[in-house]
Amino acid sequence: MKRIVTALVFALVLATSSAPARAGASSTDPEVSKALTGVAVKTKLIERLGADGLRIHVQMNGTTAVLTGQVEKKESQELAKEVALSVADVKNVDNRLTQNPAKETSASKDLELEIRDGILETKVKNILLTEVGTNAMKIEVEATNGVVSLRGTVPSADIARAAVDRSKGISGVKKVVNLLKSRA
User: Fold this and answer.
1) Which domain does 144 fall in, by range?
2) Which of 10, 38, 75, 179 is an S-S bond match for 151, by CB 3.0 to 4.6 Å?
């Protein structure tokens, strides 16, 4: 099981570090830069904390990472702050995590699927941020068993098509469900 998690985390790190950046997206748009920092924090949390990292929500408030959610392990609750601080551009952490020990341990297959879906969501969010810029922040991404759902409202049908097309091109995506609405 540990080898599977390690392999999945390695795939996540490769996918997010080698994603092609849209020309000037992160350097000229502070909102995109802030969102990319949030994705980087989420990536590191999954890498270091495994399934507990999946349960942590990251919101960037300037250079402060706000961490919310429930983790199973006390160690994860404490380590999350240090993990977030290890990401460039994160200067402070508001750790609002609570501990909620699991009553039953997850089956290894379920855990593996949960981690894969978390990795896939992170890959899609990263690509959308680098490819469609601030419009990606209006898109909610959910992955279940390799099926990616995109929800939200974007300015145009062209942006919705671009988001779907970029998502389809990501390794591990079996199908994209387009639930995006366009204002135009």
Assistant:
1) 2-182
2) 179
